[in-house]
Amino acid sequence: MFSVNLKGKVALVTGAGRGIGKAIAQGLADSGAAVAVNDIDAPSATLTAGILAGDANPYVADVRDSAAVEKMVDKVVADFGRLDIVVNNAGVEPRASIFEMSDADWHNAIDTNLNAAFYTSRSAGRIMRVRGEGVIINIASIAGHNIPIALRSGYVASKAGLIGLTRECAREFAAYGIRVNAVCPGVIETEMTTHLRQNEAQIKKWLEDIPQGRLGIPEDVVGLVLFLSSDASRYLTGQSINVDGGKVML
Length: 250
Description:
This protein is of the alpha/beta class.
């Protein structure tokens, strides 16, 4: 596993109870960072925090709630004394045609995938600008570019919005030494894609479109997150970087 030296840094990862978020939390901890593990599910947050190396605390909060996010960020700073890295990872992927998608599913996608990142970036940004440095990483998707995905209108719209939010945060936050970038995974083997990966025809189609000839795993995303968290990427901001085995070549 690729690693960097993040000793002395404090990172907050949302939606870290499972999947990509859990792997990111693990990678940050292995690189020396203290990790604030957020999830809406208390057992999942506690379990992830419990297996991490070094300092790690669980923070149970619904990141769709701006007040809850502000309270969580304040608690992280109170507990650890600082906040250097935020990874906005929490996400959902409701599946339905536009004709059939409910208002509730649509709003949940926008609230979880986009609004939550805004709330967390705003709260964390206010903390980071005082110190004059910080890193915010948004986990978006290749679906936020020009890759159509059937029956995923809420997901696609929210991830496209997240890429736009990344650019605007990067533009505004640069004056305060805060870098903001987006990581855009392709198809990653997580619980979110389990039902899709049971369809052999679907997997065959995916692999035909991926030059590297395989699906991604969470650790493929972690390496880029660690790079973006480190000083090695100090001149990189406002970017949306695909992690997709070559599927999207913009």
